């Protein structure tokens, strides 16, 4: 990215997709409109903020004094008090967070210790964080409520629920949303992504097994090589611990057998979600219920497309007709809406859209 006066949309997307933000504030931080525009966005998203005060006093950051005073006052003259007030508020908030202070007197050993401490804090936070859902989601409230009813939270019997739907319809997004809602109730939890893709690799099964055991045994050192060793460890965990487990994008019931997923092994209160495109991957002797994930309705489809194409909740009159046509092509598939919208994001002139529409008509959403 080329730096300039205006913050790039791609950087805002990166901020939204990140689980944490390390903000390094040096004495000339307030001279950069780019940096100052990043800061309130990070705060607004309620991300984990870890400030590093690089040879500056946190109280000066908090009060915009010392090396920041002249730069902030200069920006008020150029950009207006109202706009700079948002930046001031962000600096005040971040300056009040207990972070890491890098002093001028630091030697190599102290610098290394600071970095190690920062990395350790990030890893600890991420290990306790639920999975990250897409930065902009629509139409999830109702299906999440339906799934919570099917799982019957508080039910003593283990619940195994299947998510069934075509590719790109939003099974993963729904699974992440439900996982995040339940995660705080489970000490032992794991979200295993891309099961189908992993099984296609030569060492995919071994990787999946070790990821599963690492998550549920709460140890980075646990490693199994043989089938019997895996079954011994994983069955003990399943039988003794109440677990929350998501297996996303399973392709075949045999994959579940390889991972030793059997209803009778799970401890009471466990919640297991299996998402798949294949109904045969959800045998009745394994799952309690099957939830069919449905496409988005017209209104939510338009919102999702508009966000990715225009960064607006609804297209303006200029783009509304063409947006409606594009949305109808997608069939309410969230992935298609995101891909088509992103394809049009840098096309800001109306005359560019009809040609793009013709190209999109040739793309079937199920081929994305």
Overview of the molecule:
Residues 1-126 form the TIR domain. The mean pLDDT is 87. The protein has 3 domains: 9-127, Rossmann fold; 141-292, 3-Layer(aba) Sandwich (Rossmann fold); 298-367. It is built from 16 helices and 8 strands. It has helices at 9-17, 33-44, 58-63, 69-79, 81-95, 108-127, 141-151, 171-183, 195-199, 204-217, 227-240, 253-258, 298-310, 317-330, 334-344, 353-361; strands at residues 20-25, 48-54, 100-102, 159-164, 188-192, 243-250, 271-276, 289-292. The chain has 368 residues and is of the alpha/beta class. Strand 1 (20-25), helix 2 and strand 2 (48-54) form a beta-alpha-beta unit. Helix 2 (33-44) packs across helix 5 (81-95), helix 13 (298-310) packs across helix 14 and helix 13 (298-310) packs parallel to helix 15.
Total number of helices: 16
Proportion of helical residues: 40-55%
Number of domain units:
3
Low-confidence stretches are none
- What spatial order of strands do you see in the largest sheet? 5-6-7-4-8
Number of strands: 8
Name of the CATH first level of the largest domain: Alpha Beta
What portion of the residues fall into strands of 2 or more residues?
5-15%
Task: Output mean pLDDT.
Answer: 87
Radius of gyration: 25 Å
**Given the C-alpha coordinates, what overall shape results?**
flat
- Report the sheet with the most strands, covering strand number, pairing sense and barrel closure: 5 strands, parallel
Sketch the topology as an H/E string, one letter per element: HEHEHHHEHHEHEHHHEHEEHHHH
Q: Could you say what the CATH topology of the largest domain is called?
A: Rossmann fold
The end-to-end distance, rounded to whole angstroms, is 27 Å
CATH homologous superfamily assignment of the largest domain:
P-loop containing nucleotide triphosphate hydrolases
What is the CATH architecture descriptor of the largest domain? 3-Layer(aba) Sandwich
Judged by helices, strands and strand pairing, the structural class is: alpha/beta
């Amino acid at each position: 990215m080329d730096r300039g006066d205006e913050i790039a949309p791609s950087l805002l997307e990166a901020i939204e997709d990140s689980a944490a933000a390390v903000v390094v504030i040096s004495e000339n931080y307030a001279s950069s409109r780019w940096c100052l525009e990043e800061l309130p966005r990070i705060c607004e998203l309620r991300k984990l903020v870890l400030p590093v005060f690089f040879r500056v006093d946190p109280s000066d950051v908090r009060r915009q004094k010392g090396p920041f005073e002249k730069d902030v006052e200069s920006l008020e003259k150029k950009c207006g008090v109202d706009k700079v007030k948002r930046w001031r508020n962000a600096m005040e908030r971040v300056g009040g967070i207990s972070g890491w202070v890098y002093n001028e007197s630091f030697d190599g050993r102290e610098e290394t210790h600071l970095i190690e401490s920062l990395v350790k804090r990030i890893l600890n936070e991420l290990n306790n964080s639920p999975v990250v859902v897409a930065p902009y989601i629509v139409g999830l409230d109702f299906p999440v409520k339906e799934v919570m009813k099917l799982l019957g939270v508080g039910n003593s019997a283990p619940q195994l629920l299947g998510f069934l739907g075509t590719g790109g319809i939003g099974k993963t997004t729904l699974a992440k949303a439900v996982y995040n809602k339940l995660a705080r109730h489970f000490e032992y939890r794991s979200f295993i992504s891309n099961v189908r893709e992993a099984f296609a690799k030569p060492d995919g099964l071994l990787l999946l097994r070790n990821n599963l055991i690492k998550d549920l045994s709460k140890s980075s050192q646990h490693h199994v090589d043989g089938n019997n060793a895996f079954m011994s460890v994983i069955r003990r965990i399943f039988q003794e611990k109440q677990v929350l487990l998501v297996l996303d994008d399973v392709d075949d019931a045999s994959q579940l057998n390889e991972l030793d997923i059997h209803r009778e092994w799970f401890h009471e209160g466990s919640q297991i979600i299996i998402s798949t495109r294949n109904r045969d991957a959800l045998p009745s002797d394994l799952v309690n219920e099957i939830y069919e994930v449905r496409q988005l309705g017209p209104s939510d489809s338009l919102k999702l497309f508009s966000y990715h194409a225009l960064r607006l909740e609804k297209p303006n009159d200029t783009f509304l007709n063409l947006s409606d046509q594009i949305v109808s092509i997608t069939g309410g598939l969230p992935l298609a809406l995101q891909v088509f919208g992103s394809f049009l994001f840098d096309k800001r002139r109306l005359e560019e859209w009809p040609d793009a529409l013709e190209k999109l008509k040739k793309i079937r959403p199920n081929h994305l």
